[in-house]
Amino acid sequence: MGVIEETDVEQVTLALLDAANDRDPVVQEQVRKSILTLGNQQPDKVLSMCQDYLLKHPKLVVGHRVVVLQTIELVVKSRIDDISYPKIKSVIQLASDEMTKSKEVVPEWQQAASNILVAVGNKYINDIMEEILGKFQPGVLPHFFVIQTLANLSDSNVYGMVPFLSAIMGTMLPMLGMTKQDNMKWVFSSALCRFSESILEYLANLDKAPDPTVRKDTFSSEIYSAYDILFNSWIQSRESKLRLTVAEALGSMSHLMAHDKLEEQLPKLLPTILGLYKKNSEHYIISKSLYQVLEASVNMGSRVLETQIDGLLVALHQQICSPMDFNNPPTVKNHNEVLRCFTILANTFTDRLMVFVLQRLENSNERNRMGSLAVLRHLINSSTSIMETKRLLILASIRQPLADHSNKVKKRVVQVISAMAHHGYLELEGGDLLVRFIIQHCALPDTYHRPPDPEEVTNEALRSMCDNTLHLFTTTVGRLTDVLWPMLLCYLTPNQYANATTPLCKSLILLANKKQTAQEPNFIIDFNAQGSFLYRCIGVILQQCYNKELVRKQLQEMLIGTRHNDAIERTGVAMGIGLCASSHLDGTLEKLEEFGKSDAFRKASGIFGLLKDKNDVDVEKMKSTLILCYGYVALHAPEDKLLTRIDSDILHNISKNFNTKDLTMKLSLIHSVGLIAKAISKSVRKQGFLFSRKQELMGVMMISSAVLMNLSLSFFLSVRRAAIDCVYRLMYIQLRYEGFSLDYKDDSVEGLLDVREKLSNPDHSVLYKTCSELTKIISKRLPQQQLSTLLFMLYDGLVDSQSNCSRASSVILNTLLKNRGAGLQDLVPEMLEVLHSRLQVIGEEQVKVAIGQSILILATQHLQTVVNTLVAYPLPYDSWSCEMWIALGADSTLALQIMEMMIEKLNVMVPFVDKKESMLRPGLTKVTTSQPLAMTCALREMMLNGQSAEAVAHLFPKLFSALLVRLGSSVGVQLPKDLNNICVSLCCVLRVAVEALRILLGRAQLDAVVKPLDQDGAWDKMKDPQQHTTGVTLLSRAMAKHAGPRLPAIVESLCPSLCNIYECQRITVTAFFSELLNHHVVTELMILDMLMNNMMERITDTCGTVRMLAVRGLGNIAVGSPEKVNKYAKELLAAMSSGMEEKDDPGKLITLEAMSGMSKILLYLDQKNVHLLVENDEIRCASIMLLGNLSKFGSGEPVFKDQIHNVLVSLLLHLSDPNPQVVKACKYAMRICAPVIGSEQISAMFQKHLLEEKGLHYGEFINDLTKYLVWSKSFLYYKNMRLVMLLQDPDPLVRVKAAEAMGHFH
């Protein structure tokens, strides 16, 4: 383009400006573009013309003015660096005038002018601020768009605006109270939001900021003042838009509030924000604000937040369950903000959040589950490190939604599984279930009826999603390769996964290629033990084969080639043939009938039979294979063909074997008939069918199942029904003896007839239930004297080699105990001993669980007896005794009672006795008493049961206190001699207490407490008598930091132990309390007074270690709660002074703690309390004594010599103190310090005259001393300076003595 002459530019620009108000918006847009083109060439000229145009046409319609202003903005943005400064100034003036010309708000016009100022402000911020602040004067409400411009400027030019914000907010704050109109409230709120965001951005990038000294607290005061008005007034507005903007501002402002102010406001602020969800249909802004408040709270380590967590979780869960409309972006943004809220809470309240979310997964409501799954997926992806310890819990909990029928829920489940796959969940135990879920849904059938709900997830959509997920697992999640290979092969053959064959094969090919390329050893799969799988593969292939002759040939090879003696292979070939029958029913049935008549079934007989090879196939096993084949053929046969073939071709051929006595065949018959029944049941739902052989089959099932019953019960096959009949008649004979009439019918006895019929059911669960019903009937009529005999017979049955028999014995035993156990109190110890011995030989896990149930049943009926018996078992408890205690933890109510009982006893029992170890050795040895040790072991084992969590939660303060005291009672305590030789490490007294305490913390979900204790080696320190108090201190510190809310109840429970006669308990508890005072949490929880009172009482304890720890604790208040030092100043100073003059302190540990404590306390004493140091005689005594003692260590140091010179005048003055104890202390200190002064004459004089119990003539002593001192000029210099200072002392007596001393020296 050629250069346009200046006159041409003017003409063209003027013409374009005239056309700027064209009715057609397309024309308007083009006009703007054209003027911008001109402006890019001659910006000053074009801007001047735009300005002149507006000035010459003051009555232009608003739309026209807007277009011209927008054009100016475009030119400024495009060529800001090329516009002359004078022109910039005139543009600023024009835009400012245009913006404020009308007092009324005309948004389009004024916004266009404001935008020019913002564009200029990106480079000329000082000029812009000079102009705008001229229209932003204190005491006068500014124009709406003045505030809006300031807000937009802070958004577009953070580094330029932040330095102005403190002054702007200072001017703005008084205006907030003057504001009455909603639109002004809105713009102020919006501005405060933008200001806060700008400040936060500035602080986050201080390395780039022009003034890196800016700090958050620069703005805290103004922000809080603004917060006060917005929160307490404006957020209550009826105007929805204003409420949301205020909420948004509060969220941003929360990061700039002082921590104590935010902490104070949280209990009101959070419920108010949550309440906005109900008042507004638009939720995104609310969730955004909530996230910011939560982030600010967590960043500052809020303790109040924990009290709000329940309400927060409920409200956030309601939000995450709200439907998300992708056509409505705010709903999507809200969803994401809510997930961010969950993330920030997960960082601090992991356990509570996980329990909440996983419990909601159990809710069958569709939206609830979808919301919970969304949260779970987000946390798995965003909080990897936090979720690491929760992986097994999540794997267990995800099983519930796996069974949901809703495709919407299933879609969310697939998303969660995908996230889990990328974070290592699927390699863990239970991960295979999730892979199976994906494959199941790769096999979904088509949706036959299109759902009316457009949000509904069709089978096709879900299937496609699972296909893609499986492909992603194979291609992008490398860690899953060894999980999927060869697992996916197992899904190729089952019929229910037939529709998933294509994606399965694709994945298998990819996996195989990957394995082969990498030459991994597990690429080759050994199928020698996988015959069953291969036969199923053949069956699937034959399904797809349409060559009938080939099918017949393959079936023949399968039947002939099978190892019929192998139960797995028998089942495998039957499954494969059944799968084939789904496509080739007639051909399969013909081949089976032909095989059944073949020579293979002719049994060898006579003498030649004796010569039969031991590897020859057993005919009964071949028949078993054939019977199973018919069952699986029925199961897989097409439904429309099955019912016509069931009698003639299937049941006809297996009925020939109904009378067999072979166990394997009977088992195959039961299995096969069950499959046939299942197939018929499925088919008759869609078509009518008269099952003519039903009774015959039922009879066979009764006879056959009797074999199983013989294995599962202690009745013989031939007498089962007769036995039930006998019991039936015996019961009625007994009733006759009891006086009932001949025609009386007893409901429970009549129930035996029903039981008799149920005994023929082959289902084990039904059999066990039937056993239980039979036992209930018998137990009602069984005489008491026969009951014990039956029970002990059942105990023998628990160790039967046949698992079904042992299981049935356990069912009968527990039913008897439930119904009659209450009358067996005298037998309880003996029964427990038998159960203990049986546990040692039982290998069947289900029976072990049942024995645990037996112990629980006895405990519910005879709690005291059971506990006393088990407590008395030999120590150390063997693994079976431990199992019995663990079983008692399975019932939370019972566990609660037992734990309460033990806590009560532990608190009153003698923990140890003092025994003389040897006649040759002096002194006594502490030896533990057995019952407290046994109860500690018992508590340890009970708490290992996860079901005890509820009882532990309820009793936690008492349990913690009892075990901590027990820990103290175990320090330096030995086992009795009879236990010392029995694997001492298993039952070390201290070790048991430490383990119980650690398990308690774990069961109470206090992992945050356990982790630092593990890292610091605290458990080993607690077990070491030399480091015991250090270990307890670490425990106390961890509890204070991570379990604050639990402390009040713990402290209350521990207080009585401080008065115990056992000093070891007092030491442990005092160490725990002492460290608590090091943390501010005790003030927040209002237990400071209680702790301080206890520490003050322990100052006079008979045990030196307790006194030392008490002094330490009192000194710790200066660290934990410095603001409380002056409240307790008198007591603290007295305690420290007492500690510093402690006489019974061989290692000077108490003195050192007192000195340390005093140094910490002095930092926070106010002027009023400093006088206590001077006025308190005890403190003066202690300080002077301390000075004397210190001279022993510092006599050779020049610095110490200077100090002694400095204080000698004060000591001389205190020789005339009214308090005789102070005078004694001075004499002592001066005698000890005398060698430091450096004069033999003075030292000799001090040793002679300054004896504590000897009187002293003060005036004569000073006169004599002065004669020696005047010879030392340096000493006189120190003394003069010190005396001059003492003349200014507030105490008149000190001033008098100083003047007197100066007279002596001069």
Automatic annotation (TrEMBL):
Domain MROH2B-like HEAT-repeats: residue ranges? 257-526, 531-758
Q: Which UniProt keywords apply?
A: Repeat
Query: Boundaries of each Maestro/Maestro-like HEAT-repeats domain copy?
Result: 1091-1271
- Residue ranges of the MROH2B-like N-terminal HEAT-repeats domain? 36-254
GO cellular component terms, A-Z:
cytoplasm
Name the Pfam families on file: HEAT_Maestro_2, HEAT_MROH2B_1st, HEAT_MROH2B_C
Could you tell me which Gene3D superfamilies the record lists for this protein? Leucine-rich Repeat Variant (1.25.10.10)
- State what protein this is by name: Maestro heat-like repeat family member 1
